Amino acid sequence: MATAFTQPHIDLDKKFEEITKLKQNVERRKLQIDTVKLKSLWDFLKYLELTKLQLEKRKMEIVDHMKDLKKIGNDGEAKQEMEKLKVEGRIVREDLKTLLKAFWEVEEKVVLKGLSLPNELHKDTPDGQDKVVYEFKERPTTTQKESHLDIGQILGLIDFRDSSLFYLKNEAAHFELACLSYFSEGFKADDFIPFCNPDFSRSLVVEGCRRDHTDPNSAFTVSFPNEKIQANYRLHLVGGASMYPFCAFHTKHTISFSSLPLKYYTCGRQYSPTGPEQEDECSGLFGTWQRTGVEVFVLTADDYTEMMNVFRRSLDIVIGLYEQLGYHFRVTYVSASSLQCWECLRASVQMYSCHEQKYIEVGKISISDKYICQRLLMSYQMSEKDEKTRFMKMVSGTVVDVPKLLACILEQRNESEGKFTLPECLRYHSLA
């Protein structure tokens, strides 16, 4: 895992050159960022930087001039000029010292605020409501009085204590294992590389992926009694089936262009706290702290067409896998205001909860473009002699969230079906 300090690449000059576009981006996402004030701060920093360069240049000119005067000798005129230069030199040094203090303070503010700026939005990202781009079968019209937890308890499938502790039993346990195998095989067949990730990532990586590692409602932090670890080097329990360990693997690494695209998949756990507001909105298996899933992670060259081809191909694979399950689902492009700051486009796979009477996201694929790669210095080179910094583009996502998928299927099934049975496409992958 990456532990060394990482200086992110942020092209603020480019962002502020297109201030109108940046302002619209922030407004569409409904973020509380004053882009005009931030640009003013950036302009002030550039002014301080220019002044600093001028003072440093004058300081060197004074030093060089004094050296030349020493060569001339100590005649009256040279001595008088030397005294003037000494006085000016002291003034320049004091001015430079004062300016540097202000420069560092402003630079820290600007960089921190610059790091909080969101990714550019993709042209296909809608405003307002999500845009439905694909739908399979008709939405169930029946209202399920019993929740998936009630059904799961009656059928002996779920032992749910709270959002932090639950057990899948009998056929539900087989369903979990079969789902992981089924979705993994689907991507393995398309030449995705299987990967085994650690469950932990450092704060630097978590922050680089735009997740607030200091917020206990955002990330689990591993702590020990009397530990003396800098905040940026703490360990966080995120789960191997998430993008964080993938990003940690490539942080500050440069790979060969001939190796791209890199297509990975992994199955395992995801860990994420659920805040009080989320618990009210997402009950039962829809809001658990621990989830089992399959994560895909792709890195491409800095080529928009290649990135979009990977995104569409991955989405086609996901759609094909969900169709074989035989239940209604839809795919939407998520609205700008619902995206994470690192996302520029997200395709959300949603199934209908007949009890909650709303759609639940059971899978997703997101485009990050170069946003995270620039922050974590994930680059590639065209050849061994290529010294130009080229950042990769990233496509990633949890293609199946097993607990949520199971919950929706339980609520869509008919009572006349009796006991819960695995969808036919999963039976081959079950250990039963």
UniProtKB/TrEMBL annotation:
Domain (Aminoacyl-tRNA synthetase class II (G/ P/ S/T)): residue spans on this chain: 231-412
Pfam families (UniProt xref): tRNA-synt_2b
Gene3D superfamilies: Bira Bifunctional Protein, Domain 2, Serine-tRNA synthetase, tRNA binding domain
GO BP annotations, alphabetical order: seryl-tRNA aminoacylation
Highest rank taxon of the organism: Eukaryota
Sites where the protein binds L-serine: 295
A single GO molecular function term of this UniProt record: ATP binding
InterPro entries: aa-tRNA-synt_IIb, aa-tRNA-synth_II/BPL/LPL, Ser-tRNA-ligase_type_1, SerRS_1_N_sf, tRNA-bd_arm
Residues the record marks as site: Important for serine binding: 398
PANTHER family registered for this protein in UniProt: SERYL-TRNA SYNTHETASE
Family of the protein in this entry: Belongs to the class-II aminoacyl-tRNA synthetase family. Type-1 seryl-tRNA synthetase subfamily.
Protein name per Swiss-Prot or TrEMBL: Aminoacyl-tRNA synthetase class II (G/ P/ S/T) domain-containing protein
Organism: Polyplax serrata
